[in-house]
Structures are given as structure tokens and as C-alpha cells.
Automatic annotation (TrEMBL), chain A:
Keywords: Membrane, Transmembrane, Transmembrane helix. This is Quinol:cytochrome C oxidoreductase. It comes from the Bacteria. The keyword NAD does not apply. PANTHER family: PTHR43044, QUINOL:CYTOCHROME C OXIDOREDUCTASE QUINONE-BINDING SUBUNIT 2 (PTHR43044:SF1).
Automatic annotation (TrEMBL), chain B:
It comes from Aquirufa ecclesiirivi. Coiled coil: none annotated. Keywords: Membrane, Transmembrane, Transmembrane helix. This is DUF3341 domain-containing protein. The chain crosses the membrane at residues 55-77, 97-119. PANTHER family: LIPOPROTEIN-RELATED (PTHR40394), QUINOL:CYTOCHROME C OXIDOREDUCTASE MEMBRANE PROTEIN (PTHR40394:SF2).
Length: 453, 173
């Protein structure tokens, strides 16, 4: 600590350089992802894609039996998307993957903004030394918004049951009374208004916050800080409403008949802990390259604590949602978990177990001790596995409703996530170059530099 | 602190000074017994060289004990002693038990931890605090040096070292 006692903002400026070698590596990863994706799509079109599809043919009878049982259990009232079962289109798997990754990475991007806003709202000092990292994340919203819109416009009916033709039209053969009852909320116009409206607010508030933040580097003072606190307050209010609504819209409405009042929290907690893991991992990788010299093990300890705590929070919300449904044992609710546990020829069971292990037991046991939270390699492994675990969490949320028994982990999944991840790394690295990695005129910076726990 | 040991006390009136004094005194080969302050000072425990507390280990043990007790109680009452069907579930319906098990774990951890802390710090009802200097509860910082544990350095040298490091007074107790 002695070296930091004469802290002066003038000499802390630190500029991240996105080297051409680094760029090349990210682009190679992107190309590898595209190649895997194309190969995966080709195999899929031949009907030979990896995963569980090959085994499916032989087990159709068993599956049919399971579905009949589920149908019987639910009194026939909540048949789950029979249309996708009957006229299955193999391209659906591609669109489901695009949607899954777009939702997942939108979450990571906006959690960057949420994290910064929370720090301003609570006037936290410790995080000011690294706030430029999460502050760069929302840039990726510019990529995911058009992707979400594109999938919604062109392939919405492949993903959302409520967008199927004629489900709300009385007399139509597809007419579905339950969905028709929800059409006041679940209709294309309102859905689109929410999507575009909230995205505009997110991006708008982020742009203003980012502008003020960069301005602060030049002029300093506390006026800009106060203004940023106000913007953050506005964002937290917007995010409180929008994160819940997007959980209903983007994910819960896939299983249109089913609903859970905990779903907004559930998806938010998944997003949040993933975002924290990505922030931690980014900071650790930057430190490996010699940047962020002022971020020491005390700050990493705090990030580790957040990952630990919010892994438990996720478990709490996930389990509570399950427990209420398990206890009440209502057919129309419990079918959601039956599908993920023993339905669809049990293809989701392994993922479900793996997910709970990666998202709860692993971070809980590994990040429990103080020493682990202060050791970079432990943090790195934990952060990476949390990200993987929550990808699987989103897979479990989205795939059973969209693809039923046709999902699996194959080249398409691997390729798609590689494409999105490398695009994310490229965009964020590029955004990081645009400002000093340390907000040198942040009023709490001296406090953060002397952070000691 | 028992009254039979000999202590040399350096009294300081600034927290930065006492923090620097710790390393200065230590550099002269003097072992510091403890530093008493009215409020926590960041980095002081590291500077004195205290071992990290083992309370987290106790907390974990109490947590495991609580988990075991809760599971044992529920399984004895709900499965063995008086089996009951609730909500059409098995007798051994683990998901139903999680909330109570969680509460049991937290309860045992909290109570066990506080009790351990109090016992290890001699905090119990009726205990008279044995303060080396009453002013450590107000605005002074006191560095205590156990003479018996510093055989190699003479008492006068210790006093001098304390004075040199900025102590406003040096007492013997």
C-alpha cells in the first residue's frame, strides 16, 4: 500500500491497446465459429447433426408415450406446442440458437450498465477503479437489438407459440382459448413496442452516462458525478420494469400456456451473475496483459464475493420457483419441470443436473473461502464456469419450448456461441480503447485505490 | 490480561502514527503483544502480524452441524416416527425440506459463531473488562509490549523505541 500513498490522478491514465494481433485472434475465433456453424447447419440439413437427434428416431414411440402421459396429467388443457411436434422444421434449431445467444448476450451487455448504475446509486467507492470495464459492455446492445428484431420479424412463429397463425382467431383450427386470453399483452405490436421502447431507453441512458463519464475525465469536479447519480437512478427504475418484462416476453412467452410469477427475478438473477462473471473475467484478462494496475486483490475479493452471493441468489430464486410448483403440484404448472426432467426422452435431464452443479455447488464451494476469492486462478475458473453454467441455464429455459425433443448440443450450438462471444469480445475491446481504463477524475478514485478489506 | 505479566505501554494519539510505529518498533526486534484502538484501523492486524482468525472454520462447522440436525429432525419426524403424506409426495420429499434445512443451517451458524466469538474474547455476563489503559475506549491508541516475551531487548530499550516511534507517553503496567 505504501506505493499508493501519494496518489495523484494525473498519472493513472491507462490506455488499452487493441493490438492487431489481438484483433486477428478474435477474428480467427469468429471465423472458426462461423465454420463450425456452417458445418453444423449442413449436417443438420442432412439430419445427421450431433447431439441426441440420431437417437431420437428409435425412441419416438417412447416419447409419444411420455407426451400422452403429460397430456393425461394436464387434463389435455395445456398441450405443449403440438404444432412444432407435427411439422418440425430443422431450421428452427438455428433460429432457437440465435435467439438464445441474443438474449444471453443482451443480458451480459445490459448488466454492465446495471452494475455501473448500482455503484453510482449507492455511491460506492471501491468499484470506481474498474468501472470503465462494465461501462463498455452496453455497446453490444447495438448488435443484439437488430438480431432480436430480425428473428422476431422473420422467425417469430418458430419460437413463440403465441405467434402461430390463427391461435387467437375464434373458429380457426389453431384457435387456443388460453392464448387468446393473453393476447392483450402478447401481441406483435405491443411486444415490438416494449422491445424497441426499452432498448431505446437502455441505449439512450447508457449513451448519456458514457458521455458524462468521458467528460469527467477532461474536466473533473463533482457536478458530473451528481448528474451521473441521477441518470443511474433513472436507469435502475427503467431496468426494474424492463428486465421483468423482457423475461416474460423473450423467454417465458415461449411456453405460452405456462407462467411463473418468479420468472422475472429468475432471469434477472441469471443475467446478473453472468454479467458479474464476465466483468471479473475481463478485468482478470486485462490484468494479465498488464493493465488495471490499481485493481488489486481487495477489489477482486469484492467481485468474488458478488459472484458468490449472486450464485446463491440465483439458486434461491431458481429453487423457490421449482419448490412452489412442486409443492402445489398443479398439472398446468408442473409440466414445465416434467419437460425438463423426464420429458422429451430425458434429453434435458443431464443439462439440468449439470447446470445446478455449475451454478450453485461449484461457485458455492470454490468461492467460499477468503483465499480463493483473492486468488486469480480460482476466480478465473469460477467466472468461466459460471458463464458456461448460465448459458446452459438459458438453454434449459428456451430450448424445450422451442424445439422439444429436437434439441441437443452440437456444432450449431458451439458455433453460434463462439460467433456471439468473439463478436462480443471484439466490440467490447474496441469500446475499451476509447477511454482511459481508469476514470481518473472520479471523485471516489482515491478511496478505491486505498480499498482494503 | 493477567496482572502478573509485565507490560510496557506506548500511548499514541494518531492512528497513522501508531500504524507506522508498529513497523518501526518491530524493525528493532521487539515483539508486539497487541495494539488497542478505539476503532478498527485498516492494515493494523497485518502490520502487527496477527494470525488470521479461525472463526470462518468454526462457522462452516456450525453450518454443517445445523444442516445435519435439521435433516435428522425432519427425517426422524416425517419418515420414521410418524410418517405423513403431504401433498401426495413421498415420505422422503427432499425438496420440501430445503427451506427448513436452510434456516437450520443459518441459525446454527449465527448462534454458534456469536457464541464462539464471545467465548474466545472472554465476553460473557459479569466479566469485568481488564483494560490496560482506559483511554483506548476514547481517543488514544495503545501498543502493548510483553516484557517477558522480549528477553533479548532490555526494558529501557523498549521504552526508548516506543518514545522514538512517536508515543506521547510510555507507561509500565
Amino acid at each position: 500500500m505504501a506505493g499508493h500513498s501519494h496518489f495523484s490522478p494525473a498519472n493513472v491514465e491507462e490506455h488499452f491497446e487493441f493490438t492487431s494481433e489481438g484483433k486477428k485472434r478474435v477474428i480467427y475465433a469468429f471465423i472458426a465459429g462461423v465454420v463450425a456453424l456452417v458445418l453444423g447447419i449442413y449436417l443438420l440439413s442432412k439430419g445427421e447433426a450431433g447431439g441426441h437427434e440420431v437417437a431420437n428416431a428409435g425412441h419416438d414411440a417412447v416419447k409419444a408415450g411420455h407426451e400422452a402421459a403429460a397430456e393425461h396429467l394436464s387434463g389435455g388443457a395445456v398441450s405443449h406446442q403440438p404444432a412444432t411436434e407435427e411439422h418440425y422444421d430443422w431450421t428452427n434449431r438455428i433460429w432457437a440458437n440465435v435467439w438464445l445467444n441474443a438474449v444471453f448476450f443482451t443480458g451480459i451487455a445490459i448488466i454492465g450498465m446495471f452494475f455501473v448504475s448500482l455503484q453510482y446509486l449507492t455511491k460506492s467507492g471501491w468499484s470506481s477503479v474498474m468501472k470503465r470495464v462494465p461501462e463498455a459492455f452496453p455497446k453490444f446492445l447495438y448488435i443484439t437489438l437488430p438480431i432480436l428484431l430480425l428473428v422476431f420479424f422473420f422467425k417469430g412463429d418458430a419460437i413463440f407459440h403465441w405467434m402461430h397463425h390463427g391461435v387467437t382467431e375464434v373458429g380457426n383450427e389453431n384457435y387456443d382459448k388460453i392464448i387468446a386470453g393473453k393476447s392483450g399483452y402478447l401481441n406483435k405490436t405491443f411486444f415490438l413496442a416494449r422491445l424497441v421502447g426499452f432498448f431505446a431507453l437502455w441505449i439512450g441512458l447508457w449513451t448519456v452516462l458514457r458521455k458524462k463519464s468521458l467528460e469527467e475525465d477532461l474536466i473533473g469536479g463533482t457536478d458530473l458525478f451528481t448528474q451521473m447519480v441521477r441518470i443511474s437512478t433513472a436507469f435502475i427504475v427503467v431496468f426494474g420494469a424492463s428486465s421483468s418484462m423482457f423475461a416474460w416476453d423473450w423467454v417465458m412467452s415461449i411456453d405460452t400456456h405456462w407462467f411463473s410469477t418468479m420468472f422475472g427475478w429468475y432471469m434477472f438473477s441469471s443475467w446478473h451473475v453472468t454479467g458479474l462473471a464476465v466483468i471479473t473475467l475481463t478485468i482478470l484478462l486485462l490484468k494479465d496483459k498488464g493493465y488495471m494496475a490499481y485493481v488489486n486483490e481487495n477489489h477482486l475479493h469484492d467481485l468474488g464475493k458478488l459472484m458468490f452471493a449472486f450464485s446463491i441468489f440465483w439458486t434461491y430464486v431458481w429453487f423457490e420457483q421449482f419448490l412452489l410448483i412442486y409443492y402445489a403440484n398443479m398439472p398446468e404448472e408442473i409440466i414445465y419441470f416434467l419437460e425438463r426432467w423426464e420429458g422429451h426422452n430425458k434429453i434435458y435431464k443431464t443439462s439440468e443436473i449439470l447446470m445446478v452443479f455449475l451454478n450453485f455447488f461449484f461457485p458455492f464451494l470454490v468461492l467460499m473461502t477468503r483465499d480463493a476469492k483473492r486468488t486469480r486462478i480460482f476466480l478465473k475458473i469460477a467466472a468461466f464456469l459460471i458463464i458456461v453454467g448460465h448459458y446452459i441455464d438459458f438453454y434449459q429455459m428456451i430450448m424445450p419450448g422451442v424445439l422439444g425433443g429436437h434439441a441437443g448440443y452440437g456444432l450449431v450450438e458451439f458455433g453460434m456461441v463462439t460467433v456471439f462471444a468473439s463478436a462480443f469480445i471484439y466490440i467490447i475491446s474496441d469500446e475499451l480503447t476509447k477511454a482511459s481504463l481508469i476514470a481518473k477524475n472520479h471523485p471516489f478514485l482515491p478511496e478505491a485505490v486505498h480499498h482494503d478489506i | 490480561m493477567s496482572s502478573t505479566t509485565n507490560y510496557i505501554l506506548g500511548v499514541y494519539d494518531d492512528e497513522d502514527e501508531v500504524l507506522h510505529a508498529v513497523s518501526e518498533v518491530k524493525s528493532k526486534g521487539i515483539k508486539i503483544e497487541d495494539v488497542f484502538t478505539p476503532f478498527p484501523i485498516h492494515g493494523l492486524d497485518r502490520a502487527v502480524g496477527h494470525e488470521r482468525t479461525r472463526l470462518p472454520i468454526a462457522a462452516f462447522m456450525f453450518g454443517v452441524l445445523g444442516l445435519t440436525c435439521a435433516l435428522a429432525l425432519i427425517s426422524y419426524t416425517m419418515v420414521f416416527d410418524w410418517p405423513m403424506i403431504i401433498g401426495g409426495k413421498d415420505f422422503f420429499a427432499l425438496p420440501n425440506w430445503i427451506p427448513v434445512t436452510f434456516e437450520g443451517t443459518v441459525l446454527f451458524t449465527a448462534f454458534g459463531l456469536v457464541t464462539t466469538f464471545c467465548i474466545s474474547n472472554n465476553l460473557y455476563p459479569g466479566n469485568q473488562p481488564d483494560l490496560l489503559d482506559l483511554r483506548i475506549t476514547d481517543d488514544k491508541f495503545v501498543m502493548a509490549i510483553n516484557v517477558d516475551k522480549n528477553k533479548k531487548v532490555s526494558a529501557d530499550d523498549i521504552k526508548k523505541a516506543l518514545k522514538d516511534s512517536g508515543a506521547i507517553e510510555v507507561n509500565v503496567k
